[in-house]
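Module 6 notes. Inverse folding takes a fixed backbone as the condition and produces residue identities as the prediction. Think of it as a translation problem where the source language is geometry and the target language is the twenty amino acids. Below is one complete input and output pair. Work through it position by position during the lab.
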């Protein structure tokens, strides 16, 4: 799973501090993360569907040729 996070570093009194991104930027990052996660699920489902289809077609071809499993 991919994780997107942007931190802004600022130097105060010689010490680095991180600031969370502005709310709008954070919301965009969250939406981007959700889209990437959904895309990952869709890609995995498509891969499984393709594997099932290929297996079915192979079995059908063998059946037509008269082969048994």
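Target side of the pair, the amino acids:
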């Amino acid at each position: 799973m991919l994780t997107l996070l942007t931190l802004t570093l600022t130097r105060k009194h010689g010490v680095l501090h991180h600031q969370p991104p502005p709310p709008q930027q954070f919301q965009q990052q969250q939406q981007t993360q959700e889209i990437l996660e959904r895309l990952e699920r869709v890609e995995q489902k498509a891969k499984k569907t393709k594997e099932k289809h290929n297996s079915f077609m192979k079995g059908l071809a063998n059946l037509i040729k008269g082969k048994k499993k």
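Reference fact for the lab report: The chain has a mean pLDDT of 81.
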